[in-house]
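Module 6 notes. Inverse folding takes a fixed backbone as the condition and produces residue identities as the prediction. Think of it as a translation problem where the source language is geometry and the target language is the twenty amino acids. Below is one complete input and output pair. Work through it position by position during the lab.
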């Protein structure tokens, strides 16, 4: 496992995403995100119960998100290969209507998380 260098916050969440995270935390306990960068569902941030997705040396911990109303930080992981492509961006986790992955906790909610990227200048 590696950790992204400390700089301006690498990952943030929108108010709508924070609200959904609080709801999911209430239902499932501590949470984590992983974004693989693969096709289809892998290109979106996947939300799991903390520790359910096994991270390893091919993953980078980008942030421990502090969400108001959530007792513990929510870790945001990304595959190292994807991070190499996105390391010059600031990421924002947002939520939109739609069906997410069957493996991501928000799928039954009729919403899906997505990552918006903004180039760092």
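Target side of the pair, the amino acids:
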């Amino acid at each position: 496992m590696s950790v992204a260098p400390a700089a301006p916050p690498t990952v943030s969440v929108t108010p709508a995403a924070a609200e959904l995270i609080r709801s999911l935390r209430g239902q499932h306990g501590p949470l984590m995100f992983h974004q693989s960068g693969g096709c289809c569902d892998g290109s979106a941030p996947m939300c799991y119960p903390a520790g359910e997705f096994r991270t390893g040396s091919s993953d980078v911990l980008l942030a421990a998100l502090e969400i108001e109303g959530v007792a513990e930080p929510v870790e945001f992981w990304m595959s190292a290969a994807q991070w190499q492509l996105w390391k010059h961006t600031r990421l924002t986790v947002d939520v939109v209507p739609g069906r997410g992955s069957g493996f991501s906790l928000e799928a039954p909610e009729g919403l899906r998380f997505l990552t918006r990227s903004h180039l760092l200048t």
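Reference fact for the lab report: Strands lie at 2-3, 11-13, 31-35, 46-49, 59-65, 74-79, 89-97, 111-119.
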